[in-house]
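Consider this one:
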Amino acid sequence: MRLGTLEITNFRVIRHATIEFDDKVTGIIGPNGSGKSSIIEAIAWALYGNPVARSGKDEIKSTLARPSEDCGVSLEFEIRGEQYRISRRLIGKSERPEVNLFRNGRPESVGASETGRHIVRLLGLDWRGFLTSFLARQQELNALATLRPAERRDHLVGMLGIQRLDKALQKVKEDTRLLGQEADMIERQVAQTEILARRIAELKTQSEQLIEQCENLAGALAMAKDQFAGVETTFREHQEKQAQCSQLQARIETAEKTRLHISNQIDALRRTEDELVEAEGECANLSEDLVDYDSLKSAFETMKSARRQKEHRESLESQVKAAQIEGEQIVRKIESIRSDMSSNRKALADLPPDAAVQYATVQQALEKARTDWSDRKSEVSLAERECKRLQDQLKSIDQIGPDTVCDRCHRPFGDDLPGIREHLATELAASSSVLEAHQKKLEEHRLQGETLRKKSDEYQKQSRQIQELGIRHEALDTALKEAKGRLQAVTDRIEQLEGQLERMNEVSFDSAQFEQLQAKLERLDETNRRMLQLKGKLTGLPTVRTDLDKARGQLTVTESEMADYVRQRDGLGFDSQKFEAIKAEFAEKQQAFDKARDSHLSVRRDFELAEKERQIKSEELERLGEAARALEECRTSRFYSEKLGLLFADFRKHVISRIRPRLAELSSEIIVEMSGGKYSLVELDEDYNLRVMDFGQYFGVDRFSGGEKDLASLCLRLSISLALTESAGLDRSFVILDEVFGSQDTNRRDLIFEALSRLKSRFPQMLLITHLEELKHKVETLIEMIPTASGWSEVKVNGESA
């Protein structure tokens, strides 16, 4: 199979691309997630549809595309000299699938199902076999090299499709088991034939007996029916009279209830009328008691006004006294504030006014003293280290002698030892003198710093006191101003209240007289409310009298209707005792009729059930006859199914025995080409461990370098692809290697790439998927996947947009 032109539209992250595959080594390069694998997936999706999608089928169309846009892939390819083009699209918002296959420009098949079956027949591979044949991934190479023997064998069996043969063998075994179960079940059914025949004979005898019994019961049913019909007519006539009588009695009872209701209503209206007449007399008496009511209310209001004026004057006098007390308190507070301000000014005068300036000056001097002390401390440390070094050298000379090595030229002192020792002693004396001078200066700087620090603390304390006294003075001044303002406001309020008192007239008020008048008015208010209540009731007297006349008329009409209903009821001539006797006779005849009918129906139902069971058993007996014939067929099928299972097992052994030598043969051919003749033979042991011949002897791949080990695993993986394409009858035209360089260093990658370039005779089209930029300049055709800000990936072939 040879790839031609690939056209992609709105597939995954690819907006649009047209790629022409030549007989060259083609590199597909780009960062992770840029869509490198989407190109290979597009080829597989065009051929096999949704099953090859890496994720859900709903994610095939790019989420970046508009809903109304189509998603599609078109692939041209060549098989056995024939030119094919397959087009697969998802159309519009509904993503309706459309699939077409053309051969040499003419339609070959239409629709997903038909085209899918046609592709499998054409390539001789389903989608799993296609991916195994033409696509090799890094994880597959790692699996071939690192898995345990049993896992490696199972992995290869899965890649070579032998697992499908195992599934077929398992299916044959399952069919054999099911056929055995079916034969056992049919055999148990056939064993029931004799029991069914006896039951059918019993049911036939039972049906004949029931027919005879049913005919006897039919005569008794007819007699009971005639007797019941004669009684029913008389019963219905008396029943109708009873219904009419009951209806009239109900009307009489309703009229009686209405008459009683109206009578009660009349009595109530009479009582209400009497109460209202009595209220008229009470209202006249109350009017006499209320003759002086209005004049007394006026006098009471005048006294209430006088009482309010008196209470107001007393309130003003109380407010004046309270304001005077508040003013005295404010005056005392002002005197206290002034005393505090005087003490604050005296304390401020006792402090130096330039304390803050003195503090800043001393701080600068203190900082300089700290710097001088630190510098002097460093000089003391240097002098101490120099003295220590000279002391150590002298000690070493005394211990080791002439063999002591010089710390500068790294040579033994030898005969120069006495002179060197004298020189070191002189240097030690000088360094000790310098150290003593530095330590004396260091102590002077320390004492100077202590003095300055004490002055700094004193000036800092005075400066803070000045600041605190200033803040306190401002607070006292503000409090004094507020107190003076409050005193002025109190004074103004006293003058205002006294002015109001001067403008008020003297008021005379007798509280005892006010209380007597108030008590009298309260009694008269109650009398007035009672009279108003009575007058309100008296307005309804005409209505009560009108309702009373109307109720009396309704009572007369109701009594007349009730007398008419009684005459109609008595005129029917209904006898309840006679009706009860007829009713009892009717119930007796109906019970006899129902019993005869139920007996007849029961026997008839038993006959129908017996006949139905006899029919079912007869049909079942016929089926058992057919089952006996099916039993023999089932046993024959199970025999041949067992034979087929044995044939499948033998065939599986034969296939596996042929695959291992063929894979070794193909791997040997490939390793000769990939290693440039360095290695020529490869074998696979029973555990599918790869062994390579070197200097006439086979060795395991662990003996070789990492790059050679990867090379051998790649040869085995490519031989699997060749074996599968050979079994499908396809030309060995292209192979896809997905990230096979990822785990190797630069040298091993170069080795594998050079080896792959020697396989162009077997794989004219070789596609390498990788994220390694260094392979850009080694491939013959370069496809670059470049992510853009819009989310799409731009496809470039040899630097030009595809």
